[in-house]
Design a protein that fits this description.
binds S-adenosylmethionine; single chain; 6 helices; 7-stranded parallel beta sheet; two-stranded parallel sheet; alpha/beta
Length: 263
């Protein structure tokens, strides 16, 4: 088990080994005949009329900020290199020019008692997506069970700000959960699962997702105190694990987070 936040993902010695993008190709299904489509309508730029909301929502602006204008601040949270060169990172405005360690330290005061786990049985490309979403929702930690290597393309470097733990087995994850007073909630569309739409999620919660190929393993299902499923209405058996994780994390956010503390 190891912490991942606060260090460069490509620093030597990281227990969770990030891998460079080589997305596994999904088996292709025979293409169905498509209906002729009209032209794609252009999206109108929002211009100045973007309404109230976080500054991150403004459109048409170059990403980030340029060099700090005027006299330089001496707050130790600021990074002299970013003050001098500008900050083009994908961080919220509140953290502009901040050192990464200072951002992680601040996030540690904002994190929710929500953890997420994902079984990494087949080099799952969804893990990066899940890490990024977990970062956005200030999840306490992401747990990767099984293989150490994971495809970090979808994480968009958010793994640098997120605590990551590795567990060789579900038993190890279950030990962590017991030690930290977390209830494991399996998320899968298996028999006996409660509908996520009406279920109540525990506050101290570890949402556990299965691998894209196999779903939650039998040990994972046994470790879960309850299992929830996301209602589907179409023909596909399941949705993408990264999407399912986003939906489930947001269900917890709706139930337990304070919207007033969002950016
Ligand atoms: C692609 S699914 C595979 C397994 C699925 N049980 C099946 O029957 O094919 C991979 C993972 O995405 C999540 N998932 C996908 N669809 C879901 C749904 N409708 N409800 C809950 N979780 C879902 C679960 O964590 C699942 O283990």
């Amino acid at each position: 088990m190891s912490e991942g936040a606060g260090r460069d993902a490509d620093e030597p010695g990281d227990a969770i080994e990030p891998t460079e993008p080589t997305e596994p190709t999904e088996p292709t299904e025979p293409t169905e005949p498509t209906e002729p489509k009209g032209p794609i309508e252009p999206v109108e730029p929002a211009g100045d009329d973007v309404g109230a909301g976080p500054t991150e929502w403004a459109q048409g602006q170059p990403a980030g900020v340029g060099p700090w204008p005027g006299a330089l601040p001496d707050d130790p949270r600021y990074d002299p290199a970013l003050l001098a060169a500008g900050d083009r990172r994908n961080v919220v405005d509140a953290y502009r020019y901040w050192r990464r360690e200072a951002i992680v330290a601040d996030l540690d005061h904002r994190r929710h008692p929500l953890h997420v786990g994902i079984e990494n049985l087949g080099y799952d490309y969804n893990i990066g997506t899940i890490v990024r979403t977990a970062n956005a929702f200030a999840v306490a930690a992401v747990h990767i069970i099984g293989r150490r290597r994971w495809n970090r393309r979808g994480a968009m470097v958010t793994d640098r700000y997120q605590h990551l733990h590795h567990h060789d087995t579900v038993d190890s994850l279950a030990g962590f959960a017991a030690e930290h007073d977390l209830l494991i909630v399996g998320v899968d569309n298996t028999a006996g699962a409660l509908p996520l739409e009406t279920a109540r999620l525990p506050r101290n919660c570890l949402l556990l997702f299965g691998s894209e190929s196999a779903g939650l393993s039998p040990p994972a299902l046994r470790a879960a105190a309850m299992t929830v499923s996301i209602a589907q209405f179409g023909s596909t058996r399941s949705i993408n694990a990264g999407v399912a994780a986003g939906i489930a994390m947001h269900a917890w956010i709706r139930e337990h987070a304070d919207p007033g503390s969002a950016w």
